[in-house]
Amino acid sequence: MTSNIKAIIFDYGNVLLEWDPRFLYERFFPNDPEGMERFFKEVDFADWNLQQDKGRPFKEGIAMLSRQFPHYSHLIQAYHDHWSDSVVGPVHGTVELLKRLKEAGYPLYGLSNWSAETFPSMRDKHDFFDLFDDMVISGEVGQVKPSPEIFQILLDKIKRPANECLFIDDAMANIDQAEKLGFATILFDSPEQLEAALRDLNIL
Questions:
Q1: Please, which pLDDT band fits residue 3 given cuts at 50, 70 and 90?
Q2: What is the dihedral of CA 48, 59, 157, 182, to 10 degrees?
Q3: What is the C-alpha separation between 165 and 92, in angstroms, rounded?
């Protein structure tokens, strides 16, 4: 059995690059993980950060949240000042799979929720991004996953129907949306699990 897949699309955060704001904030909450989680919950950090991924300038986002939570203003500013500390480095096993897929002749694309301000520094730092034929970064297009619009932007860009594309992401909401649109999908858990799933699909 041969696969119908003609293009493979990767999410970046926690699929190819290990990202977690906790890595950055550990220094501000020494031996106090509960305090850190309270901060994240109180300011609704995930949703706030998503707005930067959608294109809002960091300066604007920091000013707005600092007005709401003045007692946390130093912590809010710290995310911008030390942002690169939230990315530990590549998920090496996935990077190796990316290289194998490239060698096998698959066109590779990226679809990532990422701020247009912070992505360029990561793009320059990691040469595995050169393996991608093209990519859509949410902050550059003003849409974020799991909105159907960002998937359509990607399909229009790569000029392929969804049913010829395999989408790999670590977030169930994004996988659910992709499946509704007709993509083949793999919910990423680890490089080993991804490799097994790619074998099951006769891609590797």
A1: confident
A2: 0
A3: 23
